[in-house]
Amino acid sequence: MDEIEFSSTGSGWGSRSEVLAVGWGNSCETVRSLLPRGLLNSCPAGVSSCPASSCPFPSARSPRLTLLESVLLPGPRPTTGGMEFLELIRTGRAQVKLLRGPEAPPLRGTLCVTGHHLLLSPGPQGTSDLWLLLLRSVDSIEKRVSGDSGTITLRCKDLRVLQLDIEGVEATLDIARSIEALSSLESVITSFPFFYRPRGLRLGDAWHFHPPERYYKRVARETNAWRLSEVNEDFSLCPSYPRAVIVPRAVDDDALARCARFRQGGRFPVLSYHHAPSGTVLLRSSQPLTGPQKRRCAEDEELLRAVLAGARPGAPGFILDTRSAQAAKQAGVTVGGTEAKAAYPGWKRLHRPLEKGRPLQESFVRLVEACGDLEKSMDGWLSQLEACCWLAHVKEALSTACLAAWGMEREEACILVHGAEGMDNTLLVTSLAQIILDPLSRTMTGFQELVEREWIQAGHPFQLRCAHSAFSHAQPKHEAPTFLLFLDCVWQLGRQFPLSLEFGEGLLLALFEHAYASPFGTFLCSSEKERCLCEVRTRTHSLWSGLNQPKVRRKLRNPLYIPNPLAIWPSVEPQSLQLWQGLFLRWIRPPEPSQVAWEKVWQRLASKEKTEDCESTSKPQS
Amino acid sequence: MEHIRTTKVEQVKLLDRFSTNNKSLTGTLYLTATHLLFIDSHQKETWILHHHIALVEKLALTTSGCPLVIQCKNFRIVHFIVPRERDCHDIYNSLLQLSKQAKYEDLYAFSYNPKQNDSKRLQGWELIDLAEEYKRMGVPNSNWQLSDANREYKICETYPRELYVPRIASKPIIVGSSKFRSKGRFPVLSYYHHNKEAAICRCSQPLSGFSARCLEDEHLLQAISKANPVNRYMYVMDTRPKLNAMANRAAGKGYENEDNYSNIRFQFVGIENIHVMRSSLQKLLEVNGTKGLSVSDFYSGLESSGWLRHIKAVMDAAIFLAKAIMVENASVLVHCSDGWDRTSQVCSLGSLLLDPYYRTIKGFMVLIEKDWISFGHKFSERCGHLDGDPKEVSPVFTQFLECVWHLTEQFPQAFEFNEEFLLQIHEHIHSCQFGNFLGNCQKEREELKLKEKTYSLWPFLLDDQKKYFNPLYSSKSPKFSVLEPNTVSFNFKFWRNMYHQFDRTLHPRQSVFNIIMDMDEQNKQLEKDIKDLESKIKQCKKKQTDGILTKELLHSVHPESPTLKTSLCFKEQTLLPVNHALRTIEGSNPADNRYREYAEEFSKSEPGVVSLEYDVARMTC
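Structure tokens for the assembled complex are given below, as produced in the milestone run.
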């Protein structure tokens, strides 16, 4: 097969920012790798036999034709089988004009719907870019027809808005229906990550990169009070926990099993972070199932007693409940509840209500709506910014994390965080507290480990929470942008401590994109158990190995990073918090001037490194 | 000194402005002839210039003492608690006297002595030369000339002596027109665009009433449009809201009637008057000063203050002006009522968009001298330098600085100066430490003999210019020759570093600018080191060939050798940014932050609901 060169501009992934490099699918190997297996099944009917005259590609020797051949030629079926994409594709192709927002020039060419992608191949006069969009990243689709042409507006999960002007009413309707059907497929194992085979990465490379075992090694170096338990080996105790969890050494596996029965979803208290400087720990769990009978569980009480015993003598314990006192009490009327004071000596409860679920999703939707209206007056904009409450949520999340961090660092207390299920705001608080306290979690590797350990392995249900982004018309069921809120809070920390995070905004944007739609398997499914069932680890690539390719990694770095051993205490005053323009206005505001300024910062660093190198090489000579 | 009764009070508490639990520092308060000084127990000094004080309030006596709240024009707010009411009363009275002077001669500038000799001081005053600036723009030329009509301030007291007008406008026309303009401020040149041959002119409103006309004024406008060889029509921008302009007609003032003037295009741009701006800022500051401010109160307060809406209006007007010149090649005449507030804002900001020179440190000084100082923006009244009419005070110049700040945010590479420069200028329009901003017009300044008795601010800023450099500035980029800012609402942000410049806890704890500046510094040092080393190598090689080798060579690596000394100092330098970073992060003591107060929950008892429940639990157990 001929070598195909695609320039990276105009590709479907993050084509306008530094995330470009993270944008998978803009290099030739990506395109080739995504085609052979994934699309064979899904080749549009009749396209392979289209007559040469109507074929959009000028010559048989054209590289593009070679590419298409690889899409269309019959080959062995993927072993997953199951879904026949073919049935969902009404039409294969159409002549379209693609409008990509106010900044990018429109593209004209032939649009092709495949099993996982929209492909746009520019006409003969066009440049050589092939434009790709992962169908999974389409959040909502709107079609309009007038005369003999139609318009499809695609709103993507990364908040981009695309407009396709299509010739032919039938073609418009068919393409719209195909996109609708294909973008809403729910089956995990037929999703694109199972077909994505980028060159330069090997399957299974990074999947052992960040397991809890790795973190345990660090804890074991710092203290002897904790052990790694494999009690959840078969996910029978807690379906949303990983196989191995870190628990107090004094508590045996049988006791853990009984604890698990006392906690919602089996999420018994486990170690989240050991703060070596003060010898205290951060734990997380779900609510205890006290219920109206005020049930108690001796093993659960013993576990928390053991936690305090393992810390500095006399260390107090605080249970940070992410619900209001009222809501916690309400939960006690049915099955849930809170730890009774008498049953847990040494532990005291605090309530810091954080918004989750539907109100949080609505806040996200309203903010994105506000950002989309460029004509809005000053007053309209400010009042919508206020009404959507997003920054209020950022403030609450950050200040609660600061509270937890303060407790560990200054009060030298052990902290247990939980809400109801303990897989949303609980993780938000524990992960942010670690970034505030732990210098290692502010490094590139450390942050990736944190996301893997505290979000993915800790069972944040990504599949449900990130099923739709802010544009979906569907009533939100389980969607909630808790992970986005986490990224926003980290971004705020980065703004206030621009030298203390090793990674830049690019990494946060990439994580946001990939959490919602990704060619990698990392954010698939809602728990380790599901990932095991789907064989995600063996059959998809890990985002981490993608991000850690030297070329990509360099782009994601913060050029100004200086390791900072201290805790970073952010200001949470409204005057100090800012709207994350890089995300919410990413496709709307013209990015050039600030972009160019950043490039200048890079240049300066590069020239500094150069002079330093010069210095070190010229020294020995003297 | 006769106002000072108590010069020193001990055991004074300085309260944290935002703390809801009255966290404080204890120290000693000193009152000097020019400053109020507070030295806390960590020997940290807080200096407050008397002229910066906008408001002193003595609040009701509390158990811990007598509260004294001082609001400053540079947005510092301090809240002292003086243990004895008597002392508080003395200080309060002294400050009332000291902060409001009745005479110019009592202002700080007349006693400020930076120990410079007279010739240096005069040199300082000559640093900015407006004649030179008009020459730089390209006037006088075949269409524009210097008029001597106002040489003796006979036509207009609030204009400078030197004015540029169209060559074809004769003196009778000028005199006639000035009689038809409010305060005699007839149309004159503010900025000449050399390439487009188009001009920005400024004036005050015409005394047109409902029907009055003035042929000379009509002629003068025609002369301005004729002075532009490319485009025959000109814009007349009335920067007021239409309603205000119409209301002025009843008072015999008003705006130009398009039918009477040939070739003009009339446009209202709707910037509110000084009273609206003053109360808008007041509202903004009230919102900001709220203790325990919530996000939603902040944004609804920001909205209802209207402050950013006003900033956007000024910016939009300047963009309209710049576009008229760049796109349509048309000259523009700008006025408001008296032509010294909104007109100064729009003309100066428009010039700044058009001409990269005004975005340099020196050029920005020139711009302020030209459009603000020389054309008679009433600095003393607007800034309340003297005890005068509080209704004349208005943050018009502050708004201009804020517009410039917004531009620096949108175009980080287009400005030679940084935010600190703007803040420093803002500090000194109120400080009365230098003569530049005293008085309300050039005539008044000459009468005050400011050049003989006071110092000019600009040379002091230039001496310090290292502090004000923007490291990202790229002077040569053609991209930034004319700025085309985007005024979509979300580009306007609250300027925290201005309105909270003294509330350090609200600021980022590490500064990107500082680190880049340090890095630049280091880089220069390193490059110098390389050069030194290279010349050393050359010397060594030469000596080697000369045959005298080992001793010299050995000497060159001896610890005392200059080479190693420089590299030693290089090492200290590399540490510098790290130290710097640490220093700033230490500022991020959690105790400085307001969530500290949440943290007090740790020591509180559990909420009521809980203890109740706990009782129930015990009963069932």
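Chain B has 24 helices and 14 strands. The radius of gyration of chain B is 29 Å. Further analysis is deferred to the final report.
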